[in-house]
Amino acid sequence: MNAQTVTSVPAYAVPAAGAPLERATIPRRPVGEHDVLIEIKYTGICHTDIHRAGDETGGIFPMVPGHEIAGVVTAVGSGVTRHRTGDRVGVGCMVDSCRECDNCRAGLEQFCANGAVETYNSTGRDSGPTYGGYSTHIVVDENYVLRIPEGISLDEAAPLLCAGVTLYSPLTHWNAGPGKNVAIVGLGGLGHMGVKIAHAMGAEVTVLSRSLRKKDDGERLGADHFYATSDPATFEQLAGGFDLIVNTVSANLDLDAYLSLLKTNGTLVNVGAPPAPSRVTMFSLMGGRKTLAGSLIGGIAETQEMLDFCAAHGLGSDIEVISGEQINEAYERVLAADVRYRFVIDASTIPAG
Q1: Which CATH fold topology does 163-294 show?
Q2: I want to staple 159 with a disulfide (CB 3.0 to 4.6 A). Which of 78, 172, 305, 342 is the partner?
């Protein structure tokens, strides 16, 4: 593959809103002075991919989803200093930002005041659409490429680039650790990483799930306790017990009920995004000086910190590896909650379109 010319690479693309994914060929820009060419090995399937493929959040079509990318560097630009050919690397939810605003300068590129360039379904610096990781290769500026430590396999590392940092960031920001009681709401692609990470941080971890169906899994992943939220007694028994609750589900919950589970000065952080506005009673916040907050992935430095943390503690995502031709089936299974806990596409199975 000639790094100095625009290349065409195989991919799976959504041709139009709501349409099934199909084989395609997409362009990749030439490797510039500070660019890295990555041969993609694995790409995770995020619930966001499904929302965007259905045009639920606004889409640019044809769309190549995928922002949980793990692979190997195969070429670098003349000015690249962060990565070398052969390095194990990852790409998460963004591939560029303005680099000049206060947030970018503070390492909070995900909150770029001028809008971060997302890995797919965005407009790149070349004014063309960005295409994601359901493909065999990608070209990314070196500053937005992460190093994947040897302690994590590439397939289990891929989902960490979104799901991992989405949980690591709030758990770190709100000081999960020894002496803290932390609840994770939902045990899915996000929630299972929240349990693993909070446990590794030394917190006492409780899973709040609709039923007890996944109780054994939760305990295997590191949960100290597991409760069913469909049982009203749960909210009576656990009232005022948590320093931090991280809500991973994308459904409208009774926020007042969950706020009642917080200690004084406790925080309920939302990383799941329900489709409809949520309601909360102000007295649920005022009584106990509680905080209702949100969190969105993490900056580049924090994402690297998360990868290093996971490697040091032997953490990876629980995955099911699939071939490219199984992506549409995987979408259906995600919507049916039939995955434990993340689908990962083997990029070697993506044929030419």
Answers
A1: Rossmann fold (3.40.50)
A2: 342
